[in-house]
Amino acid sequence: MSEDDILPSLETQPGLINFRVLVSAKEAGCLIGQNGAVIDSIRDETATRAGISQLRPGTHERILTVSGLVDSAAKALSYFAQALVNASSETPFSYSYFPLKQMSRIANVEGQTTVLRMMVPNSQIGTLIGARGLRIQQIQRQCNVSMIVSKSFLAGSSERLVELQGTVDNLYDAVRIVGRCLLSGASSSEETVLYVPRPSSKAAEVPKPATTQETVSFRDDIVGALIGKHGSRIQGVRKVSGATIAISEEDGTGERSFTISGSPSAVGKAKRLLAFNLEREEQRRADHETHASNSFHSDEKGREDENEKGREDENEEGREHENNLAESRDGDPSRKDIADGDDGPGESEPADGTSRGEDDDQAESVSTAA
Questions:
Q1: Contact 140, 147 (CB under 8 A)
Q2: How many CB atoms lie within 10 A of CB 195?
Q3: Residue 302 maps to a domain
Q4: What is the DSSP letter of 105?
Q5: 67 belongs to a structural domain
Q6: Which helix (H) or strand (E) holds 149?
Q7: Cα angle, residue 101 at apex, residues 142 and 63 outer, rounded to 5°
Q8: Is 178 in the same domain as 279?
Q9: What is the three-class DSSP state of 4?
Q10: Nearest to 198 by CA among 59, 25, 28, 27
Q11: Entry pTM
């Protein structure tokens, strides 16, 4: 298949076309010009109708429309592209809010390039791409431009983006061919839902959640534990809860205030985390005191056990001493007499040393004499 069979002929003028191009709000200002000077000049020179949509609140996009004969509309778009080139040389444009990411900042074609983001009805994408992508590939080769087609629709519409990057002259050639391709594949039976710029997720105004503030107080002796080493614990509470926590200085009252600010849910979560940390610290201290008390009682009991053991040892020594003494007496007869009470004067013998027999004789003599 020859190139002439792939692309439509440029010798014919197929009719009127309406190009829709997505531009940023900043680009739109450059295309309009001071007091509309730029857009008016392009209209007059190309005999086309051109306009730019109003900027909707919360959006960053506007739509440039150019209507006329295909070649005239293509010429008008090339003039608008030149205006973008002139403006971008002073301040590069940003396309962060567009559905497609911007093409490489490094141009893949020679010369000073710019980008046109054409919005094309999905029903006409097939005729632009061609069988197995041959048509769009041929446009890029023949016109020395880069093209990319979005896979998804623009939000709330049946349109898709077709981005063309190239020099102004090359874009003009490409748009002439693109216009002819689109007209050849136009369908009157399928209704097109046009894209309308909407607030982006970054630009949409989201009502700020209601904020609240609460103050809780803690004893001076517990504040250090709630703050943590190098502030690690209080920073963790701030991070997890999303609340702001300000801590007062010591004022001699014995307490310090924690002022918690944020959404109601954030403040509530911060209070719960602080309460948890407080309970954990108090439990740690209670366990420490219990351990210390148990250690004290254990020491006391140890001393009592030692004293009791000492008394038992003394008793044991006393019993051993008595046993030793008894064994000593059993082995020595003289010691046995002493043990039996025969080691001195007793009831059986008078204290004066006389024997019991002598006393009896004297007593008997006295009785006879009487």
A1: yes
A2: 21
A3: no
A4: S
A5: yes
A6: strand 146-149
A7: 80
A8: no
A9: helix
A10: 59
A11: 0.52
